[in-house]
Design a protein that fits this description.
125 residues; alpha+beta; three-stranded antiparallel beta sheet
């Protein structure tokens, strides 16, 4: 989570310290992680139910996106994606009946900062 997004939260989760690492993929190499927190995430399902999940997020100043839910979140909640021409794309939470609609977002102005190794995969298609 970008530190800037964290600062805008009306109720800020407690910042924890202790996990030392650098996340070069989401910001430049000079930025240091400010800590981490447990962030509650609320999502409205297709049927109108509210799904509450939690993610442990690192707080990174200058991150190119406000929030990036990584593979650990996807695995913990067993997320799966279903694409359908008529009904659009949905994301299902494990073996539950809960699904949410996926929606397109505009590209980040930081696209130019994508690492060359990742960009090469996208450009090859």
């Amino acid at each position: 989570m970008s530190m800037e997004c964290y600062e805008e939260l009306p109720k800020k989760p407690t910042i924890k310290k202790g996990k030392k690492m650098k996340l070069w993929q989401v910001t430049d190499k000079s930025k240091a992680i400010q800590g981490y927190c447990d962030l509650p995430i609320f999502t409205e399902s297709i049927d109108g139910s509210i799904i509450e999940t939690t993610a442990e997020v690192f707080l990174v100043p200058g991150m190119s996106v406000p929030l990036l839910l990584g593979e650990d979140y996807h695995i913990n909640y067993e997320l799966s994606v279903s694409r359908d021409i008529e009904n659009g794309t949905t994301v299902r939470f494990g073996k539950t009946a809960f699904s949410v609609r996926a929606m397109a977002v505009d590209g980040s102005p930081d696209w130019k900062n994508l690492r060359t190794s990742g960009k090469g995969i996208l450009d090859s298609g």
